[in-house]
Write a structure and sequence with these properties.
By secondary structure, the protein is α/β, with parallel strands linked by helices. The chain is built from 5 helices and 5 strands. The longest helix is centred in the last third of the chain and has 18 residues.
């Protein structure tokens, strides 16, 4: 059986986090390897080197998703973590800021939730094809 893609959820809403966990764990190709609601814990988990993809909300309980993106960019993203911003703030200005900080995708939480899961699954299949 192929190894699941390790996903970190960075989301302050318990309801959204639970919905993401349910969708990801129902996939088979994905595994939640952490779910946090603040930038400091997210950065600590990302720095451990076991995360392959991160779903990042911009508004967090403490800190912001922009801090997480900036940290990954400054570190050079050595693990090549897929960075999906899933937020209610998807104006062109926010999208530009996020992509400038290295986000691979910036998606609207209310409209593109399922697309975020599909992107994770596609990335998992791609990673499996490389092994």
């Amino acid at each position: 059986m192929p190894r699941s893609l390790s996903v970190l959820l960075i989301e302050d809403s318990v309801e959204i986090r639970d919905a993401l966990i349910q969708s990801i764990e129902g996939s088979g190709a994905l595994a939640v390897n952490g779910a946090v609601d603040n930038a400091q814990e997210a950065i600590a988990l990302l720095d451990q080197g076991r995360i392959e993809a991160a779903v990042i909300d911009l508004n967090l309980r403490k800190g912001s998703g922009l801090q997480v993106l900036a940290h990954l960019k400054q570190a050079g993203n050595p693990q090549k973590i897929l960075r999906i911003v899933l937020s209610n703030h998807t104006t062109p200005a926010f999208k530009r800021i996020c992509t400038d900080l290295g986000a691979d995708y910036v998606l609207d939480k209310s409209l593109e939730f399922d697309y975020a899961i599909a992107l994770l699954e596609k990335h998992a299949l791609f990673r499996q094809s490389l092994s």
